[in-house]
Specification:
GO terms for molecular function: ATP binding; peptidase activity. The chain has about 190 residues and is mostly helical. The chain is built from ten helices and two strands; from the N terminus they run αβαααααβαααα. The chain has a two-stranded parallel sheet with strand order 1-2.
Length: about 190
Amino acid sequence: MFERFTNDARGVVKSAFEYVERGDGRSVEPEHLLLALLDREGSRGSFALTALGLGERRESVRQALRQARRRAGLSQADADALAGLGIDVAEIVARVEEVHGVGAMSGDRKDKGWWSGRPSFGRGAKGVLEHSLRVALAQRDRHIGDEHILLALTMRPGVPAEVLADHGVTYESLVRVLYGGGEAKAG
């Protein structure tokens, strides 16, 4: 599949791996793909994000991703659902961090010595990349670009889609910016 990736899409994957290698987890997850997309400049994906007003608000997206990571990867919708059951996720996070330190629920360990090897793709990231192929095929694009990865992130439930939607970036708005009219090409 990677032979169909454009240089921009390959750059996103490479940057996502770099996030993990710098200590941000053990495997590449959808959040890492989104962080890598936020770092891109001069690509179709970065153009679309800028056109939708995210250019100057990228740090807000990064902050929202950090907050979700502190909640052990729970989306705000998950936290709200738990609140409906009387479970205060913010209180749980505060208590855990009081005892174990800030970021204790993120799953990262300070002593990385117990784990060795190269990072791999997590299930969610694999799903996003597979979905990006489907998105490219639906748009009748020959290659998978960073814009297809971005579109796939907005289509899959989870933290990246929720954070992007909270910042006004949805699948529909991206399709309008990238392809015009809001619909896939006829097929």
